[in-house]
Design a protein that fits this description.
18 helices; Double Stranded RNA Binding Domain; single chain; 8-stranded parallel beta barrel; 16 strands
C-alpha cells in the first residue's frame, strides 16, 4: 500500500477565504487537532508577511506534536538581491522550523508581467532560494505556482522551473493549479511528461474554481504524486482549495492508499466541524462524507432498500468517517420511518406502540401548518420526546418584548427584554441587536448563560425565512430555520407563525433546549 503525504494549508491558504481571520492562538488550536488526526505536514503561514504568523511559529514551538511537521511558507527571493539579504527568506529561517515551502513562478506570463524580470533571472531566483534554504539544513518543498497554465503556454520553460528547483536540492516539487482552471484530463496528460522529467517526489496543489480540485488531486495521485496539498473543508480564496476532508477517504477507501490511520478517520467529521467552528464558517449539509445529509435517506424506495442492504444507497459505512446514517421523517413518511428514527435515537417504540401513531399524526398536522422536519431534525427529536413524555423543560417564558427604533440619524436599533423562570428563579434581562431576532436571541442567551454556561460556546451560523402562503401578502405564514453550531454539534430547528418574531422564537428556543438536552 503506497503512502500519500498529506500537507494541510488551512492555516495559510485557508485563511485567505473571505470572512476568515484566525489569531495565533486559534491557529495553534487547529494545528493541534490536525496533528492528532494524523496530518503529516501543517503549513503554519507566511512568517515574512505579518507579525501574527510569526507569533504562531513562536507559539507552536512550545507545543508537542506527535505526527505533524510544521512548515513555513514564502516566496523565492526577490530579483537583484543576494538571497541571504532577502527579508522573506530570512523570515523563513527565523521561523525555526524544519521544513520550508517556497513558491516560484513557472508561467512565463507571470514572470514578465507580474515579477517583471527576465525568464533567466526567475530561474536563478528559484535555484538560489532552494539552494540557500537547503544550506540551512531545511527540508524544502518547491510550489510551482500556476504550473499547469504555464505548461500549456510554454512547456519547455515550465519544466525548466522545476529543474532549477531540483538542481537546488528540493525534496519535493509541487505542481500547482493556482487558478483552478485545469480539468482532470489536463492533469493526467501533463503529468505523463512531468513524472518522466522530475526525479524527486511530486506533489499536487489544486484550487476549486471549476469545482474540480478534489478530482484533479485524486487524478494527480493516480499519476504518481505522493504529496497532496489542501485545506480542511476546502476553505480558501475565491472558490477554495482542494478539500482534504473529501480527498482523504477517497484515497483511503477507493484507491487503497495509506493516508492517516483508519482508526483516526472516525474523527473526520469532528475535525471538519472543529475547523469550521474556529473559522466561523458554516458547513454545507451536502458536503461529502461529513455533511449531515451525506448519509440521509428520504425516498420510500431508498429506505426500503436500505433496510435490506446498506450498500444499496451508501458508498461506505458512515461510522468509518465519524458520520451516521439518517432516515428523514416528513408528512410523506409512514410508521417505518418513524420507527427507524426512534431506533436511531434509542427510543423504545414499535409499530404497535400508541406513541408511534401519535408522532406520525403530530408530524402530519404540523407539516400541514407549514412546518418541515426533514431539514430540522433537532426540532423533530424534541417533538418525539414531548409525545413520549420524555421532554425536559430547562426554562419557562414569562414574557418578552421587542422594540425597533429608527432614529434621526437613520440608524435602526433593536432592543429585546425578556423575563424567564429557571428552576423557580426569575431572571429579567435585555439586549441590543442588529435586528429584532438578533436582539431576542441575545437577550435569551444572556438570561440563561448564568444557569447554563455551555451556551457561551454556541453561535448562530444560519438563519433563513421562507414565506409559506405568499397569496396572503404581509399576513402570510413564514417558516424560520435556524442553525447553531459549537465544537461538538451542528443542529437545525424550525418555527412557523404569521409573526416572524414568534416563528424565530420557536426555532431559537428549540435550538437552545436541544443543546442543553445533549449535555
Amino acid at each position: 500500500m503506497k503512502k500519500v503525504i498529506l500537507y494541510d494549508t488551512t492555516l495559510r491558504d485557508g485563511t485567505q477565504a473571505e470572512g476568515v481571520s484566525l489569531s495565533a492562538h486559534e491557529k495553534v488550536r487547529i494545528a493541534k487537532q490536525l496533528d492528532a488526526f494524523g496530518i503529516h505536514y501543517i503549513e503554519g503561514g507566511w512568517p515574512g508577511s505579518n507579525p501574527k504568523d510569526m507569533a504562531f511559529f513562536e507559539a507552536i514551538r512550545k507545543e508537542e506534536l506527535n505526527h505533524a511537521t510544521v512548515a513555513a511558507f514564502g516566496s523565492t527571493k526577490r530579483a537583484n538581491i543576494k538571497v541571504e539579504d532577502d527579508a522573506n527568506i530570512k523570515a523563513i529561517v527565523d521561523a525555526k522550523v524544519k521544513t520550508a515551502t517556497i513558491f516560484g513562478k513557472s508561467w512565463d506570463l507571470h514572470v514578465t508581467e507580474v515579477f517583471k524580470v527576465s525568464l533567466k533571472e526567475n530561474l536563478t531566483m528559484i535555484y538560489e532560494s532552494v539552494d540557500y534554504l537547503k544550506s540551512k539544513k531545511m527540508e524544502v518543498f518547491f510550489d510551482a505556482e500556476h504550473f499547469f497554465d504555464g505548461y500549456k503556454a510554454n512547456p519547455e520553460y515550465a519544466l525548466k522551473a522545476l529543474s532549477e528547483a531540483v538542481r537546488g536540492g528540493a525534496d519535493a516539487v509541487v505542481l500547482c493549479d493556482t487558478n483552478g482552471g485545469s480539468t482532470p484530463n489536463d492533469i493526467w496528460t501533463i503529468m505523463e511528461t512531468v513524472k518522466k522529467e522530475v526525479p524527486v517526489q511530486l506533489g499536487i496543489h489544486c484550487h476549486n474554481d471549476m469545482g474540480m480540485a478534489v478530482a484533479n488531486s485524486v487524478i494527480a495521485v493516480d499519476q504518481g504524486c505522493t504529496q497532496v496539498q489542501g485545506t480542511i473543508n476546502g476553505f480558501g480564496e475565491r472558490c477554495g482549495n482542494a478539500n482534504l476532508v473529501s480527498i482523504i477517504p477517497i484515497l483511503t477507501f477507493k484507491y487503497k492508499k495509506q493516508t492517516v490511520p483508519k482508526s483516526k478517520l472516525k474523527n473526520l467529521q469532528k475535525l471538519s466541524r472543529f475547523v469550521a467552528e474556529v473559522c466561523n464558517l458554516p458547513l454545507q449539509n451536502s458536503q461529502p462524507f461529513v455533511g449531515v445529509s451525506a448519509f440521509a435517506h428520504k425516498g420510500g424506495v431508498h429506505v426500503n432498500a436500505m433496510l435490506k442492504n446498506k450498500t444499496t444507497y451508501e458508498i461506505l459505512d458512515p461510522a468509518l468517517v465519524g458520520n451516521h446514517r439518517r432516515f428523514l421523517v416528513s408528512e410523506l413518511s409512514g410508521a417505518t420511518n418513524i420507527l427507524i428514527k426512534a431506533k436511531e435515537l434509542e427510543f423504545d417504540l414499535d409499530k404497535n406502540t400508541p406513541e408511534t401513531r401519535q408522532i406520525l399524526m403530530k408530524i402530519q398536522d404540523l407539516e400541514n401548518e407549514g412546518y418541515q422536519f426533514e431539514a430540522a431534525e433537532a426540532s423533530l427529536e424534541l417533538l418525539m420526546k414531548k409525545v413520549m413524555g420524555k421532554h425536559k423543560s430547562f426554562f419557562d417564558l414569562v414574557s418578552f418584548r421587542v422594540i425597533d427604533e429608527k432614529r434621526e440619524d437613520n440608524k435602526m436599533v433593536s432592543e429585546a427584554t425578556i423575563t424567564l423562570k429557571v428552576n423557580g428563579v426569575e431572571e429579567h434581562t435585555a439586549a441590543d441587536g442588529d435586528g429584532p431576532v438578533n436582539a431576542l436571541d441575545g437577550a435569551l442567551r444572556k438570561a440563561l448563560t448564568k444557569f447554563y454556561p455551555i451556551l457561551e460556546q454556541i453561535h448562530l451560523i444560519d438563519y433563513s425565512v421562507r414565506v409559506i402562503n405568499g397569496k396572503e401578502g404581509t399576513a402570510a405564514k413564514v417558516r424560520v430555520f435556524v442553525q447553531f453550531q459549537d465544537e461538538k454539534y451542528a443542529w437545525t430547528t424550525v418555527g412557523v407563525s404569521e409573526n416572524i418574531i414568534e416563528a424565530s422564537w420557536q426555532a431559537i428556543v428549540d435550538a437552545i433546549e436541544y443543546r442543553l438536552m445533549k449535555g
